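Replying to the earlier thread about multi-chain prediction with a worked example.

Input:
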Amino acid sequence: MAKYLLLKHYRGGPTPPSYPPMDQWTPDEVEAHFEFMNDFAARLRDGGEFVDGQALSPDGVWVRSGDEGRPPVVDGPFAETKDLIAGWMVIDVDSYERAIELAVELSSAPGPRGEPVHEWLEVRPFLTAPPNVTD
Amino acid sequence: MDDVQLRALVPQVLSVLVRRGADFATAEDAVQEALVRALSSWDDGLPSDPKAWLITVAWRAFLDLARSETARRDREARYDTEPPTGEVSSADDTLHLYFLCAHPDLTPSSAVALTLRAVGGLTTRQIAAAYLVPESTMAQRISRAKRTVGSAGVDRPGDVRTVMRVLYLVFNEGYSGDVDLAAEAIRLTRQLVAAVDAPEVSGLLALMLLHQARRASRTRPDGSIVSLADQDRSQWDTALIAEGIDIVQAALARDQLGEYQAQAAIAALHADAARVEETDWVQIVEWYDELLRFADTPIVRLNRAVAVGEADGAPAGLAALVEVDEGVPRREAVAAYLHERNGDLELAAGLYAVAARNAPNLAERDHQTRQAARLNQHLQRNP
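Result:
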């Protein structure tokens, strides 16, 4: 088993497919999308592949400690931050192929006119603890 | 004996150990151990006196813990004698425990965790699951909290106001895991009402009961939000509502108004309306004005603006909204609603979209997105 992070970006990935923001969809299209997302997470849970899923607020700031004798630096929020993470899902699956398969499925959530949104998702393997058998 | 009855014994058992001279932190660990043992061994049959059983097992566990700490070796001799028989625990002991767990030196999250364990009798695992943190994290939070209480001195505990704030937090946050925290908060508040005679504590209990009564109708099975106006009022728990209204009326009759009683009065007026059209919004606005005297917060002002909008019309509501700070969570959602009621649909649709973006949780984000989509479709069809 290996853990993968499926990362959803508001911005920062390859050029996103263009479709109107969700408040411009019809109520039925919105409903179908929410239902797909709920079902997807439920299926992962039932299949024993779900670890965690979280959505993030679009507001965030950059923080770093200050130089000696200076206060910490807190910057933002920036309207035009290049990369903006919307949320993630952590899955625990048997193979890389399965991780890709699930990401493809999640990316095909229905959008306007019921067509898949083809949203980009970033798939990142977790670095794991070293194995016990080393030779 | 069910799990809740068992846990009701926890503060009594803990009080007995503390009264026998055990230090709070170690005694609390010992009671937790006895509790875990009871949960596993009572399946085969209840002891004839569950409380005495818990006291005996907890006391032995305490002795073991005290012995195993070499630094406390000198104390061992003192404890290793036949323990005095435990007296019947009084309400005062329970109250003292509440005060300890809501110690002013504790952060809110620590006070919540400690209260749920030492007064509520929940296991660390259950508390961790309810707040979605690893068990080891919660264990650490609790043991640090106990050290804080210990070093700050048990002679300077919290007061009933800090206890109420902790119970209110328990009621309001954390809904997952195998423990219903809202129900647990109600149980602990009932216990507090029994131990201390104060109208505000009754007000807090009434507030919880009246909100709990509407809980089932507030969300759909998929977790989506149903607004107050759209709730199926036949699903409301009439027994809880009746009890809540009785309690708040009795409290108000004592003429020592406070913020929890005022909030409970507002909840009672909502619960009392069989249909949303029958809601007495004028009286609700009056109660918000009372509430402002005790808690002049942007959130109270925001909720008041909604009530004013219902009582005196959307323009009045929008005027009240002007007095609410920008940046208050849900302000755009309220503005959108009031503008929609005022017939300014395009502005409302835009504000619903902003409200969705700024929503503090997923359920609200989805709810506001639905509102925006609904209005935008209406606008397209009726240009």
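The longest strand of chain A covers residues 2-11.

Feel free to reuse this layout for your own posts.
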